[in-house]
Amino acid sequence: xxxxxxxxxxxxxxxxxxxxxxxxxxxxxxxxxxxxxxxxxxxxxxxxxxxxxxxxxxxxxxxxxxxxxxxxxxxxxxxxxxxxxxxxxxxxxxxxxxxxxxxxxxxxxxxxxxxxxxxxxxxxxxxxxxxxxxxxxxxxxxxxxxxxxxxxxxxxxxxxxxxxxxxxxxxxxxxxxxxxxxxxxxxxxxxxxxxxxxxxxxxxxxxxxxxxxxxxxxxxxxxxxxxxxxxxxxxxxxxxxxxxxxxxxxxxxxxxxxxxxxxxxxxxxxxxxxxxx
Length: 277
Hints:
- Helices cover 35% and strands 16% of the residues.
- By secondary structure, it is α/β, with parallel strands linked by helices.
- The protein has helices spanning 33-49, 72-88, 102-112, 137-146, 173-182, 201-210, 226-229, 254-270, and strands spanning 13-19, 54-58, 93-96, 116-119, 126-128, 131-133, 153-157, 163-164, 187-190, 215-217, 235-238.
- The protein is built from eight helices and eleven strands.
- An eight-stranded parallel β-barrel has the order 1-2-3-4-7-9-10-11, surrounded by five helices. A three-stranded antiparallel beta sheet has the order 6-5-8, with no helix packed on it.
- Strand 1 (13-19), helix 1 and strand 2 (54-58) form a beta-alpha-beta unit.
């Protein structure tokens, strides 16, 4: 049975990523706030028209990323973009602010009246490419309570990509996932080792069997593997595959998105037990 939040109408839900152009103050920034907002709105409109189940915005172009703390120039514009995207969207919307700026993302999501965030480093400290990142579950959930944002879902990465987990290698994926569940994660995100890399399907299937919490595949979904992953997860975040040549830095590819979503509809039609809440 689907376990994802009832905001989403289908399972597995397809959540499309909008990689927000580089924001003010970051090394690659070259566009005005107005231009950035208009680009994100155009992309959101395209994804909604193609029938995705959710949209997430992420400041992927802001590399190199700060560790946990970002400036007001980032969180403020992300909130404005989120508000604009959400204002015309009839589907759930959320955001992630890199790297691990989960409190900023939660505040911006609340201000934008969006529905969920993707949070890195929720449990167990690890060495990210931004440096050491301590876990923040206790702080983040207290902050959510303090600002009155309990309705916002917090989906959390487990053994996150682009990171070394050497110091917790004696804590396997299942135990890490159980810890996140115990700490009240609203959904667990499983990824490959890097952006666009496929998650281990056996890990996904095992977690779905072992835990009564939504399981979300957070990287590497493509038209060639979506059917294999569909029975084993509650949602899929699709970013790179929806872009031209399958690379996250490129603009959206209408044909790729349309072909992918057509296949998802065929999968749902063939498996009605996983499509209706």
